[in-house]
Amino acid sequence: MPQSTKRLMGVLSFLVISFAFLMAVEKVQDYDIWWHLKTGQWILETGKIPKTDPFTFTTPDAAWAPHYWLADVLFAIVLRISGLDGLILFKAFVVSAAFAIIFRLMLRQGVNLLVAVTLVLLAVFIGHFRFLLRPHVFMFLLSAAFFWMLSVWGGARNLKLLWLLPLMVLWVNLHGSFFFGLVLTGCLLVEEWLTAGYRRIRKKEAITSWPTFSMLVFVLLGGITLVNPFGIDLLQWIVADFVLKSVSYTFEVEEHMALTWGTHRLFWSLMIAVAASFPLALRKARLFHLLVFAATSFLAIKGVRFVALAAILQAPILGYNLQALLDKIPAQKWRLTRSLQAALAILLLVAGGTLILKRSFADYTDHRFGLGINESHFPEAAVQFLRELNPQGNIYNSWPIGGYLLWALPERKIFLDGRYLDAQLELIAQLNTMTARELQALFNRFDIRAAIVTRKDKRLAAYFSQANDFRLAYFDDQALLYLGDDALPAKTMEGFAFLALVHPESPDASYLSEYARSPMAPMVENELRHAVTLAPHSFQTHFLLAFFLEVAGRGAEALEQYLLAVRANPRLAFVHYDLGRRGGNLAVRLKEWDKMTALIKQAMRFRKDDELLFLLATSLYQSGHHAEAEKAYLEILRRQPQQVASLVNLGYLYLDSQRFQKAEEMQRRALNASSDNEVALFGLALALQRGGKTEEASRTWQEFLEKHPQSPWRKKAQTHLDQLRSPHAGNN
Questions:
Q1: Integer Cα distance of 11 and 351 in angstroms
Q2: CA-CA distance, 377 to 383, in Å (whole number)?
Q3: How far is CA 215 from CA 155, 183, 223, 232, in A?
Q4: Please, are residues 85 and 130 in contact by the beta-carbon 8 Å criterion?
Q5: Which uninterrupted H or E stretch holds 394?
Q6: Comparing C-alpha atoms, which of 117, 143, 116, 110 is closest to residue 292?
Q7: CA distance readout (Å), 246 to 71, 130, 239, 302, 638
Q8: Local structure of residue 414 (DSSP, 8 states)
Q9: CB-based contact 148:105 (threshold 8 Å)
Q10: Starting from the edge strand earliest in sequence, which strands make up the sheet with 394-397, in order?
Q11: CA 470, 471, 472: angle at the middle one, nearest 5?
Q12: Under a CB-based contact definition with an 8 Å cutoff, are residues 474 and 488 in contact?
């Protein structure tokens, strides 16, 4: 290979690796990482690997086989050395290394440069949602490494296949997906044996020896799976829990659910393309690839968590098959020079990277580019409040946030810590069926004196809100905090300001309407303002106060609180509470056009519909931004040509900008859609009069007075009509 070509390959490889690396640099948003870090820290401190649950007071003796123990230790070491940001970068390096392997494999197998880059981009797009800071990222890297070695293996005389053995030693201790290494090796073994049998039977070739070397490697790999702290017990657990449950059951957690048609469309497209590529590649297609495709597709369809893995391995399979197809086409009909391929590939990388990064910075996405923590996912403020209170006894916590509590409150054991232990899952099932009396007995048995509950944990939130011995002490966007009557010393409890009248666990805030019209209104307002003081960066506290102020008739104060709520959490405000529409309509009533414009523009980053667009157009019009307003009205009319309000308003906008013919056209269209529309008829008469069509304007004013004798604009219409009928009408 010429030196210039090598440099070109090196540059492209660097760009591909950098692209995958950047896509994996995301703020931490997964709850599981915290108990993984706690596990790694516990192992480093004790020098032992836990075999029973050391973290909860509810299931302390439950059997536990942390198959990811080595990954947890690595994470804890990296965290100790470089902090959380360094850990995120380490995860990104592991992910990018997996994509670097499949890209270099495609280049080694002669895949077209542009095709190889495109397929890597596609795989990154598909797998992006699984680039979480968790031990499964090692599955991507080790699967890619196994696939590389098995794909390029040159036969029994090539001992490089033995490198799989130390890799398996690592894999079996890094993550329970090590079984997939056996699947990949088994796929090669099947190809080797079937190929040998085919040659012997159909081609009548003398086979001096069957492919025993690959069989030996497969057997050794199977034996190496026992090189773990749990021995054969780990294999039994993986088969029963990691494999069988993945292919036989579905879970409420998204990553464990089966893949359905219509979701992850890019992955479905990739699977269909790979399946179609095998008959197109004909004799050059490999049975090994077909078996790997079948295995990865099966796993992905049975569990969404395997989608990214399937994409990583199916991309080079598609590249190999496509190259076999391209090789059949005469070179002069499609050949691109290496330089042109590289230039197009670089453009593709830049465009793809820009698109993904743009989406990653958007407020509406969970997978945000950057370092640190995605604050909207963790109850940091609530836990800080809980830490300062330091209640006596034990604390109940909703299952998803248990891992975070385990990390954030290291001095305490947790009710449930978010691991998929059978004992914890059984306890959750019991909680879901218990009566209030049974729950009270359970909490008494475990000495529960405080509770931190996620907003999604509606049943337990309802229990604590109604329990006689628990009171609401704090709430924000992530959690609600309840204290028992004996959670704090008696003197502290006496002076503590509880939230007795506010019910943030309720999805409907309309109960505040009754309060606003009752003698209890001052007390409710005091509680809401106290909640804002406790959680000033929470959407919920500002929203409930704003709602209360709005129904109390204090619109200006309410609008300010709505704007603060939006600033606290735009995604929650616009996606779940439709605050753009609510706040926009309030701003219309108050004629706060500039505030309304800013609010609606933010809302439309999350949700674009004609009602929001109409509010935006109206605010722009009223604040004097006519060009932008006209554009917005025209966009509405492009989708809804008979939308009367937009036709009328646009007609008046044209009047203000002296475009009388266009104003007349808009008002006539509005009247065609709604013949009795008072505002449109008034606007039409004005457009005719100002456009110099005095006779037609006179008739239209007369029609207006006859059709709308009670109109508040009757006097104005009569004045215009009198002007037209006066001797000096031509001067008007």
A1: 17
A2: 13
A3: 12, 13, 12, 21
A4: no
A5: strand 394-397
A6: 143
A7: 21, 16, 10, 6, 48
A8: B
A9: yes
A10: 394-397, 448-454, 479-484, 470-475
A11: 135
A12: no
Pair of tokens at residue 622: 């009223």
CB 27 within 8 A of CB 374: yes
Q: In angstroms, rounded to a whole number, what is the distance separating the alpha carbons of residues 452 and 397?
A: 5
Query: In this structure, what DSSP letter does residue 354 have?
Result: H
For residue 233, what are its two tokens?
Answer: 């017990």
Residue 81, Cα to own-chain centre: how many angstroms? 29
Q: 470 forms bridges with which residues in the sheet?
A: 484
109-143 confidence digits (pLDDT tens)? 888 888 888 899 889 989 988 898 999 999 999 99
Whether the CA torsion 185, 187, 188, 194 is positive or negative: it is: positive
How many CA atoms does the CB half-sphere of 730 hold within 13 Å? 1
How far is the CA of 410 from the CAs of 66, 301, 402, in angstroms?
A: 20, 39, 12
Q: Mention every residue, 6+ apart, whose C-beta is less than 8 A from residue 440.
A: 467
Burial class (CB in 10 A: 0-12, 13-18, 19+), 704: buried
CB 131 within 8 A of CB 24: yes
In this predicted model, what pLDDT tens digit does every residue of 59-81 receive, in sequence order? 888 888 888 999 999 999 999 99
Residue 155 region by backbone torsions, left for phi larger than 0, else alpha for psi between -120 and 50, else beta: left
Strand blocks (E) in 406-510: 448-454, 470-475, 479-484
Six token digits for residue 480: 């609600």
Model pTM above 0.90: no
Q: Which of 477, 457, 461, 476 is nearest to 400 (CA)?
A: 457
- Spans of all domains in the chain: 3-30+65-361, 378-494
And the tokens for 616? 């935006």
Q: Which residue has the tokens 């996620």?
A: 454
Residue whose structure tokens are 């414009």? 597
CB 88 within 8 A of CB 134: no
In angstroms, the CA 642 to CA 513 distance is 37
DSSP state of 52: B
Cβ atoms of 50 and 66 within 8 Å: the answer is yes
Q: Angle formed by the axes of helices 265-281 and 113-127, to 10°? A: 140
CA separation for the pair 428, 426 (Å, rounded): 5
Identify which of 93, 105, 80, 182 has the alpha carbon closest to the alpha carbon of residue 138: 93
Q: Say if residues 402 and 417 touch (Cβ distance below 8 Å).
A: yes
User: Are the C-beta atoms of 293 and 187 separated by less than 8 Å?
Assistant: no
What DSSP string describes 223-236?
HHTT-STTTHHHHH
Which stretches of 367-457 are DSSP H helices?
A: 380-389, 402-408, 422-433, 436-445
Whether residue 349 contacts residue 121, with contact meaning beta carbons closer than 8 Å, is answered with yes
Give the contacts of 277 (CB within 8 A, at least 6 positions apart): 285, 317, 318, 321, 322, 325
Give the tens place of pLDDT for each residue, 639-652.
888 889 999 999 99
pLDDT tens-digit series, residues 556-597: 999 999 999 998 888 888 888 888 888 988 988 988 888 898
Token pair of 114 as six digits:
């542009």
Beta-strand (E) ranges in 140-184? none
Which of helix, strand or coil describes residue 63? strand
Distance CA 575, CA 554 (A): 25
**Tens digits of residue pLDDT in 412-438:** 899 998 887 888 888 988 888 899 999
How far is it, in rounded angstroms, from Cα 542 to Cα 504?
12
Q: Which residues pair with 397 in a beta bridge?
A: 452
Q: Which tokens hold the place of 73?
A: 């230790």
